[in-house]
Amino acid sequence: MILRSLLFLPANRLDRLDKALASSADRVVLDLEDGVAPDAKGAARAALGDLAGGRLADLAGRMAVRINTLETPDGIRDMAAMLGWPVWPGMLVLPKVEHPAQIAQIKALAAACGWSPALLVTLETAAGIANAADIARAVPAGGAIAYGSADHMAETGGIMSAAALAHGRGQVVNAAAIARIPALDGVWLDYRDMPGLTAEAELARTMGFAGKIAIHPDQIAPINAVFTPDAKEIETARAMLDAAQRAGGGAFAFNGKMVDAPVLERARRVADMSRSEK
Hints:
Blueprint: E1 5-10, H1 17-21, E2 27-31, H2 41-52, H3 56-59, E3 63-66, H4 73-82, E4 91-94, H5 100-112, E5 118-123, H6 126-130, H7 132-138, E6 144-147, H8 149-156, H9 162-179, E7 183-185, H10 194-207, E8 211-214, H11 220-227, H12 231-247, E9 252-254, E10 257-259, H13 261-276
Helix pairs in contact: 2-4, 7-9, 10-11, 12-13
């Protein structure tokens, strides 16, 4: 599963769905949570129900839905509505996850109706970041975790800067590595500042993130460009893997540098991504 870019779209603005799909986002997330005002959530659920009875059958592979946390009445209403849909999206986004039991609860509800969506679990509270490793281990295969940086900074009183976000990002990436699942970086809020977005995406990639969340269609192309290996990277990765096979195991020299298991692992990821895009 390639998850370089996720574009969030409020579920009460489905008039923008075609534009969102045209953006080349790997997933379009129909949002029932923070993107929808409290008094509009009922209408948003109804709109998604209509979509589930129509176009969603053809779009399920690219669609996701973010529900409200099940610790709120709106989250319970979201799941109750979705369990009656004839077609479900391929991914479910769980906000503000703070402990593994929340993942188990969702899995049980979905399984009761024969539904096993991929899960994207967002860590966006102090408690979620503190429990990142345990939460990541609970994510089923095929899922991912994401850093909800804006909400995390709102709780801690920090600002959206590289220095302030470094700890949270590090915790999320490390937890993802332990669980061997992808990690996605949080949003770049100034959707008109493409150089700033590109710089932040490049920083996130150097930390180990596999992709980034977007809030505007114009952000997708820069994000995809950063998180997609270029032709030179792919060629080098494949050549390194071939050299490793010839070396027969252990560390070996490649292009004047020593290569060992961790370096080879990154090369495999690059090669696997290039194959997945075909």
